[in-house]
Write a structure and sequence with these properties.
With 790 residues, the protein is an alpha+beta fold. The strands form six sheets. Strands 6, 7, 8, 9, 10 and 11 form a six-stranded antiparallel β-sheet that branches. Strands 2-1-5-16-17 form a five-stranded mixed β-sheet, with helices on one face. A five-stranded antiparallel β-sheet has the order 13-12-20-19-18. Strand 16 and strand 17 form a beta hairpin. Residues 12-16, 130-136, 272-277 and 767-785 have low confidence and may be disordered.
């Protein structure tokens, strides 16, 4: 019988190897299955998501939202409107220093990877597992995908979309195109989109002018524009700037010497955004905005339209400064209304500094009108601070505007004491304590050769009140209206040498049908017989009434249309001789331009051209010219009137003009309305016609001795001193049809003296006033009543 052999025992450990092998194989297989499933799920997700991704082909022709921009005739920016400030710059025009600063902090391997930095992505994914998705590892391409097409939500699904979009962008666009989009699209705070706009916003510079230090500061903004805003968080912005400089050095973008210089460079941030070196044109920009939105609708704010105007940047600066100076000069002579508010000044230095900072922030500076807090006050010296750690002592004449607030008996609301929040302004003589003006002003200058508006300031402070007094305020022109009446009189044979009786007039209630009317000369004086030339130079109201009576009220009402004035706003009554109608400063400047250019009315023009972002012209306004087709006044009429207006600036109520500016080619007329509620000066040089007005929005008396010559004329002179600095003397030349006879200019047919020689003599209308209702007979009553009828 055969014996079955007994099997040998297995070697030691032989049974364990299959178990671990199987376990390992099982684990690998499981992981592979999970990986395959993940890949399949990812592939399925990609297959489902990719076709639904946004079409990115539009980025090949990148057209971001662009604001509406308004420019002066020399290309200076006057204003912009839109949610996004943006200046699109092609890649080739972006300086390397800016690109390097951005790459150093945002994506140093941008030109090496294919859109996704896998090392950074893995690092961020691991960090996010334990830090609640705190890191993003976004490359510049990924940021473009997110900023243009996606939200900033932090989720893995949104990240998948972002990565897939990144691949599409990298496939469609070059690296340079992607970087160009990023540099122009990214939000950098202060409503600025793109680095070119941010350079203007923060530094008032073009992109090409930025230093390494400035570029590093801007490069730190994309991560968190609010947190690193140098205006709001200067310390945090500075720390990030230094970090970026270090990164630029580490990446070899700058040398050690450059890094050292950049760290030491003091930053000079732009203060008062939008002022463009004193170019305040807010009222002009708003006029343009209204016009463009009316024409193009709401798309005007995003279509990148460029609007070019007739404004001269140099003249606009001069106009703004002149108006501000005139208003502040007036305000310093007014009764002090007291500090704008009071604050507590804690004993603790840190708390005190914080309280002062808060007070100044709550009442921001108004350009040259600065906010300060009083530290100490006495009748001879006031010490204030601007919150910068220093103090300013104000003494002597600098305290004159606030003397009532330094009186020991001043009421609490007027008294200057520690903690009072006040306004100060620096003049050539030193610091002056003052107050925010209540009075308003307007100024506009028009070129009489083409009707272009060269400068326009609609009020003291656009932010305080956007009402444009140059175009919207209808005010009585007072005596500045008289030249239009005198112009009509020339055509009736009343020449500069005509003698008119300056005598009182009185119209009883029985004649007027209402209250008695007793017009007066502004100075209350009646000088008897005088020439038309002298009467206009002295602004005699009685003479103007006599002249209007000779012209006829209806005839005069039609005559003023030659100057672009609306006859409906100037009823045909004798009060028209005193400027009792309604005009705007722009109408007055344009009207006087008719005298300046020899008799041609050219409607004021502001907008000359509109272009799209690529500078393709959408609209262009042909330039106006002085030609016979727009003549509204005989040339000889304009010339003779100009000679009369020249006399006013030489020896009359505006004699200060020629005396100050030292030139004979100035022409104009002062104007002061009833109860001194409006002060005017309207005048011209052959190259500029300008109107200055000062008054309260709600009409009230401007005070004793308030006249156009005292209040409005200085503004006009201040402006013209700058505007005419390079202009040679240009005295007007006599046209055909005039003759110099008897020491004055007359129409040629009157050279023999046959013009109207006398006016207003032996007339019942010029009987001296009795101080009450003068007795008149029936015939006289009918004659007087005729004066109030068309």
């Amino acid at each position: 019988m055969a014996t079955t052999p007994t099997p040998s025992p297995p070697p030691r450990g032989a049974a364990a190897r299959p178990f671990w092998r199987q376990a390992l194989l099982a684990a690998v297989a499981g992981l592979a299955a999970l990986g395959l499933a993940g890949v399949l799920l990812l592939a399925l997700g990609v297959a489902l998501i990719y076709p639904n991704l946004p079409d990115v082909s539009g980025l090949a022709d990148y057209r971001p939202k662009m604001p509406l921009r308004v420019y002066a005739r020399d290309g200076s920016l006057l204003g912009e409107f839109g949610e996004e400030r943006r200046i699109v710059v092609p890649f080739e025009d972006i300086p390397p220093v800016v690109i390097n600063a951005v790459l150093a902090i945002e994506d140093a391997r941008f030109f090496e990877h294919s859109g996704v930095d896998y090392r950074g992505l893995l690092r961020a994914a691991l960090a996010n597992l334990g830090e609640a998705k705190s890191q993003g590892a976004s490359t510049i391409t990924m940021q473009v995908a997110r900023n243009v097409y996606l939200t900033s939500e932090k989720s893995y699904l949104r990240k998948l979309y972002e990565i897939l979009l990144t691949f599409k962008l990298e496939h469609l666009l070059t690296k340079e195109q992607i970087l160009e989009i990023y540099m122009n699209q990214i939000f950098l705070g202060q409503r600025s989109y793109g680095f070119a706009a941010a350079a203007q916003t923060y530094f008032g510079k073009s992109l090409q002018e930025l230093t390494i230090a400035e570029a590093a500061l801007l490069a730190g903004l994309p991560k968190a524009p609010s947190a690193y805003n140098p205006y709001r968080n200067p310390k945090r912005a500075r720390a990030r700037q230094l970090h970026i400089i270090d990164r630029m050095l580490d990446n070899g973008f700058i040398t050690e010497a450059q890094a050292h210089a950049a760290r030491a460079e003091p930053l000079r941030l732009r203060r008062g955004q939008g002022d463009d070196d004193g170019l305040h044109a807010e009222y002009i920009a708003e006029m343009v905005r209204q016009t463009i939105v009316e024409r193009y609708g709401e798309d005007a704010y995003t279509a990148g339209l460029k609007v070019y105007t007739t404004i001269d940047a140099t003249l606009q600066r001069a106009a703004w400064r002149a108006l501000r100076n005139g208003v502040l000069d007036f305000e310093r002579r007014q009764f002090y209304r007291g500090p704008e508010r009071f604050i507590e000044l804690p004993d603790d230095p840190v708390a005190r500094e914080a309280a002062i900072d808060d007070a100044i922030a709550a009442l921001p500076d108004n350009d040259t009108l600065l906010t300060a807090v009083v530290l100490s006050a006495s009748p001879t010296k006031v010490v204030v601070t601007r919150g910068d750690g220093g103090s300013i002592e104000i003494t002597g004449a600098g305290l004159d505007p606030v003397r009532s607030g330094l009186d020991p008996k001043a009421p609490p609301q007027l008294k200057l004491r520690p903690g009072a929040v006040v306004r100060i302004v620096q003049t050539r003589e030193g610091w002056v304590l003052t107050q925010t003006p209540e009075v308003e002003a307007a100024f506009v200058a028009v070129d009489p050769r083409d009707g272009g508006i060269r400068a326009l300031v609609g009020g003291f402070d656009f932010d305080r009140n956007k009402f444009n007094r140059v175009t919207q305020s209808q005010r009585q022109p007072g005596s500045s209206f008289k030249p239009f009446i005198y112009s009509a009189a020339l055509e009736k044979g009343i020449m500069p040498a005509t003698v008119v009786n300056d005598a009182p007039l009185f119209f009883p209630a029985s004649v007027t049908g209402g209250k008695p009317w007793e017009p007066k000369n502004y100075d209350g004086q009646y000088d008897g017989p005088m020439t038309v030339r002298t009467a206009l130079a002295k602004s005699k109201n009685m003479v103007s009434i006599q002249i209007l009576r000779a012209v006829g009220t209806q005839s005069a009402q039609q005559w003023i249309t030659r100057f672009g004035l609306d006859p409906d706003k100037h009823p045909p009554y004798l009060t028209m001789a005193l400027g009792a109608g309604a005009v705007t400063p722009l109408e007055m400047a344009a009207g006087y331009a008719v005298f300046a250019n020899g008799g041609h009315y050219l409607p004021p023009v502001l907008i000359t051209r509109i272009t799209d972002p690529r500078d393709r012209v959408l609209m262009e306004v042909p330039a106006q010219k002085v030609e016979e087709s727009n003549r509204t006044l005989p040339a000889r009429n304009a010339f003779v009137m100009s000679q009369l207006l020249n006399e006013i600036t030489r020896s009359g109520t505006a004699a200060r003009a020629q005396a100050t500016l030292k030139r004979p080619d100035l022409y104009g007329k002062t104007g002061t309305t009833n109860d001194a509620q409006d002060a005017w000066f309207v005048g011209f040089h052959p190259t500029l016609s300008a109107a200055a007005w000062l008054g309260y929005d709600k009409p009230r008396n401007l005070g004793k001795r308030a006249t156009g010559g005292a209040l409005a004329l200085p503004i006009w002179i201040d402006f013209m001193a700058q505007a005419l600095r390079q202009e040679p003397v240009q005295e007007l030349q006599p046209p055909p049809g005039v003759a110099f006879s008897g020491g004055d200019w007359v129409y040629a047919e009157y050279a023999d003296g046959s013009f109207v020689r006398r006016l207003g003599f032996d007339d019942p209308h010029t009987a001296p006033s009795t101080g009450g209702e003068a007795p008149v007979d029936a015939g006289e009553r009918r004659s007087i009543l005729d004066l109030f009828r068309p």
